[in-house]
Each structure stands twice: as C-alpha cells, then as structure tokens.
Amino acid sequence: MTSTASAPAKVILFGEHFVVYGVRALLCAIDKRITATSKTIDEKKIRIISEIGSVEVPLGSPESDHRTARFMRPFLYVTRRALKESGEKRGIEMKLESEIPPGMGLGSSSAACVAATASVTGLFGRKPAEEVLRRAIEAERIIFEDASGADSSVSALGGLVSYSKDRIEKMGSRNDLSLIIANSRQVHSTREEVLKVREFKRKNEKLFSQMCADESAIVEAALGALEKNDLREIGLLMSKNQKLLEKIGVSTPKLDALVGAASKTSYGSKITGAGGGGCTISLVDKTNTEQTLESLRKVGDCFVAKIDFEGLRYL
Ligand code: PMV
Predict the structure, then answer these.
(1) Active site amino acids
(2) The model's pTM
(3) Ligand 1, closest atom to CA 193?
(4) Is 19 close to ligand 1, i.e. is its CB under 6 Å away?
(5) Residue 302, phi then psi, degrees to nearest 5
(6) How remote is the CA of residue 86 from the centroid of ligand 1, in Å?
(7) What is the pLDDT of residue 74?
(8) Contacts 24+ apart (CB under 8 A), 203-211
(9) How far is the CA of 85 from the centre of ligand 1 (A)?
(10) Confidence class of residue 175 from pLDDT cuts 50, 70 and 90?
(11) What's the rounded Cα separation, in Å, for the pair 52 and 73?
(12) pLDDT score recorded for residue 63
C-alpha cells in the first residue's frame, strides 16, 4: 500500500519583516514542489528517506529522541500519529523528493510537513487540505515553536494568501504572474534577521513607525494592482518594498547585485523572505523573461516560477 502527496514552495511578494509589527504580508505558492511517498513495510520500523538525510527508528521508540536530526522530527511525529490513529501494526517508510532548494526562504520545510502529513495519513484515508494543514502546523511547531503557519497555509491552500499576525486569508485573485527566483546561495537565519530588524527599530522608533506606514500603503496598493493585473504597478511596488528592506539592513551585497541585475529589464525586483541571503524575486512576462534571466545568470542561479493555484495535491 502506498500513498503519495505533494505540496508547493512559497515566496513572500510583499510585507516580510514589517508583518512582525502588524503590517499585512502577501504570499503566494509557486510551482516547485516537495513530494512525499509513504508505504507500509513489514519491518517494525519508521524509515524516512530524503536527499538531505535519512532516519530509521524502531516502532514504539520514545518520541523525544534527541539523537534524531531536528528537521526529521516533524516527519516522525506525523507518522507516529497516523500509526496510532489507524491501529496499523506494520512499519512505514516515507520518501521525500524535493524541487525546492532548502534553507533559502522558499518554505521547503513547511511544504515538506504538508506533503508528509497528507501522504502518511492518506495511507489510511485521505483527509481534506484544512485538516492536513492543522496537523502539518503542529508538526512544524515541534522544531519551530514560533512558526506562524503562514508558509504551511499557502503551501496547503495554494494561490495567493494575505497574512497578518492574527489572520490568514486565501485571496480570490488568479493572477498568472511569472517570477524569476534567483538564489544568492547565502544560507540565512530568519531569526537573526528578525533580531537585526528589532534592533534597527529600537534605535529608530520614529523612522520605523513611518516605514511601517509606508509598507502598509505598498501592500494596499499591491492588492489593487494585483486585482487589475497591472504588472508595471506591481513591479514598481516591489522595487519600493525593496528600498525599505535595504533601509532596515536585511539586504547583502549579493542580494543587491541580484536585484540590480534584474532591475534593468524586469518590472521590479526584491528580496523574498528574511534576507541576509536566500532568494530574490523579479516580476517578468514573456517580453522580458529571457533578458532578465541572462543578466541574473551572470550573478547567480535562477529559475522561472509561476503561481501554483492547487496547493496540496494527492497523486
Ligand atoms: O525567511 P522566510 O521566507 O521564512 O521569511 C520570514 C519572514 C519574516 O517576516 C522575516 C519573519 C516572519 O516570521 O514573518
């Protein structure tokens, strides 16, 4: 018996960092996925296999096994829950395959939690996306206590999502945006960048509060521009957003170089996510994709992504 599910990566279009201080952020799922395949096995074991590491534990082993690599714990958690709920006595093997570079702010760990949860619970009966999402967030919080659930939500639901501290809302918009994602190959720590911004805010309270107001205006204008599918306006707003991110200190020379390279031909370009490394996004259409890719390739790796409207997919 096997069960396969996949879930998409995400980018933050607008509002990262300022979202921590109450501004709304806009995220979207992209057409790069993690696929999880689970099967029952006769060995009394749980085995998780991925490209970045594998783990094998006997059935009935303690849940608080600190020798297990942190990133594996959510997968063991969802597998144990599925075994317990179903009463299944055999073991389970889960294989994770990813098209998403890890540690680059594209939501690979959240997408993996969503795909893993759907795949392993699907062995005993498919669950609706909302139910899978709730459990995937529980699993993610085992290793990221403060995870907001925004990444998992956009991964499970697909499309565009508006996220603020207390509200996650799927947007009706079906924009067929093309984004070039460029990877700085600098591994970042979201936590460190968030702390850096907190320090900036502490030293510049008045300025920061003005910047939050400016960011709010950008996000509100972006909602209107998305509604009209006005690429020029969306791009201009992305570039404005980038200026604010540079001002709060989360860009790096490499990210500046990627944004600079793309700005010549794309509609707009910015960091996506925490910064300090990770990726940039640049808005393009068929008139400027090739030129923008060419300029970006001189600086780093890049690929074209489209919005994924499907979210969680059972195969
Ligand atoms: O690095 P990412 O893509 O997970 O983005 C983090 C987004 C922040 O706004 C910087 C932090 C947060 O918790 O919202």
Answers:
(1) 151
(2) 0.92
(3) 10
(4) yes
(5) -155, 160
(6) 35
(7) 95
(8) 208/21, 208/248, 211/18, 211/244, 211/247, 211/248
(9) 33
(10) confident
(11) 14
(12) 78
The Cβ of residue 44 has, within 10 Å, a number of other Cβ atoms equal to 11
Tell me if 21 CB under 6 Å of ligand 1.
no
Taking each helix axis as running N to C, give the angle between helix 253-263 and helix 231-247, from 0 to 180 degrees, rounded to the nearest 10.
160
CA angle 110, 115, 119 (to 5 degrees): 150
Give residue 1 CA to ligand 1 midpoint distance, Å.
Answer: 38
On whether the CB atoms of residues 251 and 245 are closer than 8 A, the answer is yes
Q: Please determine, for residue 218, whether its predicted confidence score (pLDDT) is greater than 80.
A: yes
Q: Which residue has the higher pLDDT, 233 or 145?
A: 233
Alpha helices (H) in 18-123, listed in sequence order: 73-86, 108-122
Query: Under the phi-then-psi rule, with left for phi > 0, alpha for psi from -120 to 50, and beta for the rest, what region is 166?
Result: alpha
* Residue labelled with tokens 């600086």: 299
- The pair of three-digit structure tokens given for residue 298, joined into one six-digit string: 């001189």
- The answer, yes or no, to whether residue 188 has pLDDT greater than 90, is no
How far apart, in whole angstroms, are the C-alpha atoms of residue 2 and residue 38?
Answer: 5
